[in-house]
């Protein structure tokens, strides 16, 4: 059974009174995956505090065990990893199943294919539909052989070379996963792996590699592009990693508080890395009453407590260039746009078509089902606020962010909003329902369909 598989759990969100209180959301998903993976390569004990214990990250923990690392849950959120050294991962005895976790599988393909082992990767129905060519292209250039049943889709078997080749690579899509897979593969290639990143994406891999003692340098070239150089075959030193709160999870209570009348909440200890902060910037432009309190540094990252009060929102045009810094937040921004005065225009969204679901189509269908006017373009969405009342049933396509976004919608519409399946929420934010209920949100479980 894949880590995210389970029974279907339909759920409805009901119109709720003001949301009030303080919450702490779980650790950042991107940083959690990376901490487990770098821990698996460092000889000695890496201690991780605040690890996200969602299905995606648990799949990565299990995968690191399959590669021979000792991964132990010492207490809730506190994990230790005893690694095997760069180039020291073992060949797993079985297929490695990443469930719903795109980041997990893509980074692990880079991590594990730079050495002479053969590994078969797979995932759930959603992950098996997602494109892997973007990772396989650079890995092939490093000497990795790829066996696929269906072109560039999981399940995939990767046979690493005896000696990986360091490459010079220009990242062709704005994707932190592609960048990270190449950097992780470069760790065991003799010489310098050089990456040019035309559009800056989240930089957690670079930051964490530097903290673990990798020989990594980042410069900006004459065209303003980031150039990352990594010298391979250097040992990594185990670290203590403190994982800040996930801004992509915080997005749901933040938007809920903006749109549910009378709300006033504080979300504590949220990562404020500027390459992840596009949603906050946009919501503030829309007139959201959002203040950042107690800014501080945790584990080398800026964090703060975010106070949000219900606000009258105005529609804005979100520039395409902002997409990489809020790539996972468009579904919930579309929900905010449903309550804003005017047309919220979102452009440059091509990558949303290849996330856990086709998020442009899923959002457009979900809004339409709830009477909200929405125009879907090949790479854009336009939402007209103030038009919907809820009452719809939304298909989530195994996509946790579609599920949470539409539940948030239902807290603020007159009629309830139902989703076909809340189970995938556990991949990234298992505490979602409890934390939201604690703030005053109302949900109702529905009968699963007869099978
Ligand atoms: C992630 C990168 C993004 C994002 C994903 C997490 C990461 O994907 O959507 O949820 O941790 O590197 P892309 O790199 O495909 O944009």
From TrEMBL:
Active-site annotation: 328 (proton acceptor)
Domain Enolpyruvate transferase as annotated: residue spans: 16-434
NCBIfam families according to UniProt: aroA
Role, per record: Catalyzes the transfer of the enolpyruvyl moiety of phosphoenolpyruvate (PEP) to the 5-hydroxyl of shikimate-3-phosphate (S3P) to produce enolpyruvyl shikimate-3-phosphate and inorganic phosphate.
Major location (coarse): cytoplasm
Record's keyword terms, sorted: Amino-acid biosynthesis, Aromatic amino acid biosynthesis, Cytoplasm, Transferase
Coiled-coil ranges (or none): none
Keyword presence, Amino-acid biosynthesis: yes
A Pfam family assignment: EPSP_synthase
Residues that, per the record, bind 3-phosphoshikimate: 29-30, 34, 175, 177, 328, 355
HAMAP family, A to Z: EPSP_synth
BP terms from Gene Ontology: amino acid biosynthetic process; aromatic amino acid family biosynthetic process; chorismate biosynthetic process
Family affiliation: Belongs to the EPSP synthase family.
Catalytic activity: 3-phosphoshikimate + phosphoenolpyruvate = 5-O-(1-carboxyvinyl)-3-phosphoshikimate + phosphate
EC main group: transferase
GO molecular function terms noted in the UniProt entry: 3-phosphoshikimate 1-carboxyvinyltransferase activity
Location in or out of the cell: Cytoplasm
Entry EC number(s): 2.5.1.19
Gene Ontology CC, one term: cytoplasm
Taxon lineage: Bacteria, Pseudomonadati, Pseudomonadota, Alphaproteobacteria, Hyphomicrobiales
Protein's name according to its UniProt entry: 3-phosphoshikimate 1-carboxyvinyltransferase
Subunit field text: Monomer.
Residues given in the record as phosphoenolpyruvate binding sites: 29, 102, 130, 177, 359, 401
Source organism per UniProt: Kaistia hirudinis
Pathway assigned in UniProt: Metabolic intermediate biosynthesis; chorismate biosynthesis; chorismate from D-erythrose 4-phosphate and phosphoenolpyruvate: step 6/7
């Amino acid at each position: 059974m894949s880590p995210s598989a389970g029974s279907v759990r339909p759920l409805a969100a009901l119109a709720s009174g003001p949301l009030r209180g303080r919450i702490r959301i779980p650790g950042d998903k991107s940083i959690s995956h990376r901490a487990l993976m770098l821990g698996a390569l460092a000889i000695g004990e890496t201690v991780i505090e605040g690890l996200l214990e969602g299905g995606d990250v648990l799949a990565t923990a299990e995968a690191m065990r399959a590669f021979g690392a000792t991964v132990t849950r010492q207490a809730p959120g506190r994990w230790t990893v005893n690694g095997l050294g760069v180039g020291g991962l073992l060949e797993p005895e079985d297929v490695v199943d990443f469930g719903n976790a795109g980041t997990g599988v893509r980074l692990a393909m880079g991590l594990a294919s730079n050495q002479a082992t053969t590994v078969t990767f797979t995932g759930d129905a959603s992950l098996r539909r997602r494109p892997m060519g973007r990772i396989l292209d650079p890995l092939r250039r490093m000497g990795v052989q790829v066996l696929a049943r269906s072109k560039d889709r999981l399940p995939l078997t990767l046979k690493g070379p005896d000696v990986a080749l360091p490459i010079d690579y220009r990242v062709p899509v704005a994707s932190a996963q592609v960048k990270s897979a190449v950097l992780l593969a470069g760790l065991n290639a003799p010489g310098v792996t050089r990456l040019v990143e035309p559009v800056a994406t989240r930089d957690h891999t670079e930051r964490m590699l530097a903290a673990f003692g990798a020989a990594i340098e980042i410069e900006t070239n004459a065209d303003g592009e980031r150039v990352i150089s990594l010298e391979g075959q250097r040992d990594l030193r185990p670290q203590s990693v403190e994982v800040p709160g996930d801004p992509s999870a915080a997005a749901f209570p933040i938007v809920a508080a903006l749109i549910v009348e009378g709300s006033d909440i504080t979300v504590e200890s949220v990562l404020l890395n500027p390459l992840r902060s596009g949603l906050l910037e946009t919501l503030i432009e829309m007139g959201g009453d959002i203040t950042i309190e107690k800014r501080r540094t945790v584990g080398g990252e800026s964090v703060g407590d975010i106070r949000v009060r219900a606000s009258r929102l105005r529609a804005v045009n979100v520039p395409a260039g902002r997409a990489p810094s809020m790539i996972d937040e468009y579904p919930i921004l579309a929900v905010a746009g449903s309550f804003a005065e005017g047309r919220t225009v979102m452009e440059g969204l091509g990558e949303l078509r290849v996330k856990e679901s086709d998020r442009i189509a899923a959002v457009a269908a979900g809004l339409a089902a709830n009477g909200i006017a929405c125009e879907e373009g090949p790479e854009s969405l336009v939402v007209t606020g103030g038009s919907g009342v809820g009452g719809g049933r939304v298909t989530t396509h195994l996509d946790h962010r579609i599920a949470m976004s539409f539940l948030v919608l239902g807290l603020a519409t007159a009629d309830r909003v139902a989703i076909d399946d809340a189970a995938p929420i556990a991949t990234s934010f298992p505490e979602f329902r409890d934390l939201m209920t604690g703030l005053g949100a109302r949900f109702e479980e529905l009968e699963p369909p007869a099978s």
